[in-house]
Here is the input.
Amino acid sequence: MTPTRKIINDPVFGFLNIPDGVLYHVLQHPYLQRLTRIRQLGLSFFVYPGAMHTRLLHSLGAMHLMHEAITVLQQKDIDITDAETTAAMLAILLHDVGHGPFSHVMEHTLVSGITHEDISLMMMMQIKDEMLQNQQHEYAQLLNLAITIFKDEYHKHFLHQLISSQLDVDRLDYLCRDSFFCGVTEGSVASARILKMINVVNNHLVVEAKGIYSVEKFLVARRLMYWQVYLHHTSVAAEQLLIKILDRAKTLATNGVQLFGSPALRFFLYNQISQTEFTANPEALTQYALLDDSDLLSAIKVWMQSEDRVLALLCQHFTNRQLFKGHRIDHPLTEQEHQALCAHYAAQFGITHEEAQYCFVEHISTSNTYSEKGESIGIYFKDGSVRDIAEASDMLNLETLTFKPQKRYLFRID
Here is the structure.
């Protein structure tokens, strides 16, 4: 059989090479191809119209950076076999495969007690089982190694760190990619420079001291991107409105009201899917794998004409970009303020006080630049010592890095 050669033109990193073999095979899988129908930044397009790139493009970019990182480590005489290289690239290619439509909205509404990371792992296991059924034992063995690395159960811990840590190829790609498509230059990071500076000491990933300024820039860029893009109050307002729509649809479905929806969407509307159900019922994973952004968008357009006044109202506001308005507040809503809002919307729209609660939501946005939990970013000096970035940097300190600012909002129909 003639080897298949796949080259993808990525606007961020240029031409990406997809090697023949298991990587190319997995890329063709419906689970991966589904990611072409899921936007990387969820509802950020309401603020940044260019933010239309997909989760598949991000996964491909992260896989490219993984290959670049491993090549650098191999050049520094770090022992990484061809099988480990392929497995690490597989793991990062599949790391987001379990994401639902519009980022984390599904995790807050239609499924409960299970994260997209859990579902990603379930999908990896499913792909591996299919390989075994098709007698693709070599592919299955490589994917099994990828799963082991993904779960941080492999003895070369630094390979897992390249997938998930305070400074991993996932973050390097999405910061570069999201800033590019949004046009937010503050998020641009020197990913090539950082990767050239990585090394391994005592089985842990470190950055050589020459790269410390690039790491500082990475941390600052991450902070700016969170508040300027990921947690932009309009993006959060749109997400909260979508959550209210799905909450209302789920309530109606639970009460037996028949709603339009694709078979996959109706499966989650009319069934209570918890982590236990997801694990025990194979149909849940099958239907989840058929869900993408278009399922929700098409349903919302139809629900604009719903006989339910609340659902129709919310869907009309979403479709016509009459989003919740965000108002900064300095304290949680009191019971009196909550009841006043209910009375206001009940009178305005002719709905009950209970239904009026769909017209507003209190929400706290929070993010930290550097987590106190988990492993630090180690800076490796020529004398062989490794120091935390917060200690090594003359610009940043631990208090600044780990500070978690919070912004409390009241999102409401204006």
